[in-house]
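Translate sequence into structure tokens.
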Amino acid sequence: MNTAISEKARMVNVQRIYWTAPIMTLTLFGVGAFHALTLEAASPVLADWRRQTMVVNALGGIGSLVGWVIAAKLRKRPASDRSLVVFQYAVVGALLLFGIVKAVIDQRMLISVTPILLVSTIVGTFYYLRPSRAVVVFFSFGLIYYFSLIHLSELPLSALSVSLSNGILAVSLGFSLSLINWRNFRLTEQQREQIESQQAILEKMAYQDPLTGLPNRRFLDLVVQAELKRMGRNGRQSCLIMFDIDDFKRVNDTYGHPVGDGVLCETAKLLQKSMRGSDILVRLGGEEFILLVPDTPLSEAVSLADRLRSQVGDHVFNVEGCQVQITASFGVAPLETVEETKNYLSSVDKALYLAKGEGKNRIAFWQESTLESPGEREAGAAVDV
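Result follows.
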């Protein structure tokens, strides 16, 4: 989970760099232009400070522009890509270095740690850094700031001490914000993952038969609606195969309900082995199942049903120490558009009823056809076995 959170944090960081870099670029160029257009400085020190500030802001603006271009290219890369790690820490390092350089330049004019405070706050609140790496980043930042100020600042010792202490406090503040920011991000991501996991479980429960693990009728309704639309586009025929275990009550009465449940589960596994990848097997309820076979004409669906019927009849189910043999009756019908979508089982249900009426352990098909008299139907046919 920690790896997943870190990868998500990297992607968020790259996105934030992409959206903010143009703003930073315009801001830094704007500040540099402001100093360039300002009236002549009152002293050589002020003039020198302005020149250095313009140079630093110009370099910062160019760096932001380059960062934006790179971020645009990295946004679509996998979160595990090592280049994302290198890029985000390069940006953080460049931002902190900008703050140090700007702070050292500002020490020529006044005792101020505003640049250090700004970059520490930005890094601490805007980017998600793992605590173990945030320690290294901010500790290194503090050390570099400390030694840069000691060796480059021209302030008297008392003023230097104020700048150093205030700067270290600013760095500590940034690190504290970074810890809080990461903790909130991690908790949010963990809660999101937990909610998604729970939603997946609930969705699975809503569309899955708890006994056999097969999809249920609710799932079949959705799939059939999609299949009818697809059939309308490509003009191909799909079929439904409904089957019912013959005299299943006898199995429960003879061996008990645990054995009966085991037979249902084993029947589902047996039939799944003979299905194509595109076929969908559903448990309607009780001992009744249905198979959706896309892009299959009625003749092929009848052949498939006969093969499944033979497999069920020939198989010996070993459940709870009992050997059980069963037969099943099959009804086959084309999947056809009906006025009420919920009635799409009407034809295949009639076919199964016909198979049961003809003596069970057999197959019957039913196909609607438009004859000369409106409303007339072509009766189904039973297939001898």
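Note: The radius of gyration is 37 Å.
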